[in-house]
Amino acid sequence: MSVVPEPHGPRGGAVRPLAPRPYARARVLLFPHGGGSASYYRPWADAAPWDVEFLTVQYPGREERYGEPVPADIQGMAAELADDVPSRVQPIPTVLFGHSMGALVAYEVARRLTAAGESPAGLVVSGHPAPQLTRPGRVHLSDEDELIEELRRTEATHRDLLDNPTLVQAFLPIIRGDYRLSETYRPSPGERLRTPVTVLYGDRDPEIHSWEAEGWREVTDGVCRQRVFEGGHFYLEEHRAPVVELLTAHARTASDASPVPWPSAP
Predict the structure, then answer these.
(1) Quick one: which H or E segment has residue 245?
(2) Is the sign of the CA dihedral 157, 42, 223, 202 positive or negative?
(3) Residue 142 has what DSSP assignment?
(4) How far is CA 109 from CA 25, 57, 183, 221, 232, in A?
C-alpha cells in the first residue's frame, strides 16, 4: 500500500511534502506523469539533502483525492496548482520538475507564476516534447483492452495491477482522463518564460525525439540545456539517483544566486 504524503500548508491543497526540511534554502516541486500520483515520488525523499526540500503534487482523482474529477484541460489544472505552490508562504527559490504529462503541467504552472511576478528558479522537464510540438492522439478514445495494451507498451503501470480486473476498473477512468488532457493539450499564447529550462529524456523513448526536445528552447528567454539518459520512457526508474542529484544542484545554484538569511538563535 502506498503512503500518501500529508498536504502542505494551512489550506492543504495539492502540494505534499516528501520529507521535512526546516532549514531548506531551496525547494524542488515534483509533478507526476499521467496516471501517476504523489506517492510515485516517495522514494525520492530518501535522497533529499538537508538543505533542499522536495515536495510533490497530488492531482485530482487519485489516492486521497479520488472523488475529485479530472479537470477539463491542463490549463485548468495548472491554474489550481499554481495557487498551491508554497512560494508565497516561504519565499525560497523553487525548481519545478515534471515527467511526461507532468512536464506540461509544470510548464503551465511556471507560466502562471511568471505572469504573477514569481518566476520559478528553474524548470526541468522530462520525457515530453516541447509544448508547441505536443503530439495529438486518440488513445483516450480507445476501448478498455486497447487502453490497457497502451499501458503495457509504455510500462507506465505495474503489470500486476493491469492483471487485476478490480484495480483496472478503479484506475482506468483516471488514466483515460489523463490521456485526454495530454492528447488534447494546445499551448495558449503568452509571454515566454525567463526561467532556465533543462530537458531530460531516455535515448530509447519513443515518446520524444531529439528535435522535439530541442523545441523547448522556444519557450524561454533563459538558458535551455538537455541531458540524455540510457533507457525508455521511464528511464527514471533506473536513473533516479542522478536525476535527484541534478535537481538538487539546480536548487542549490538558485539558492546561491538568491541567498536566504540563515535563521538566528533566539
Answers:
(1) helix 240-257
(2) negative
(3) S
(4) 21, 12, 18, 17, 26
Parts of the chain with a pLDDT under 50: 1-12, 88, 261-266
**Per-residue cell: 266:** 533566539
Q: Can you tell me the distance from the alpha carbon of 159 to that of 174, in angstroms, rounded to the nearest whole number?
A: 17
For residue 32, what is its C-alpha cell? Answer: 507526476
Fold of 15-257: Rossmann fold (3.40.50)
Q: Is 100 a catalytic site residue?
A: yes
Within 8 A by CB and 6+ apart from 151, the residues are 35, 157, 162, 175
Question: C-alpha cell of 4?
Answer: 500518501
pLDDT tens per residue across span 147-172: 777 777 666 555 556 566 666 666 77
Residue ranges of domains in the chain: 15-257
Of 37, 39, 87, 100, catalytic: 100
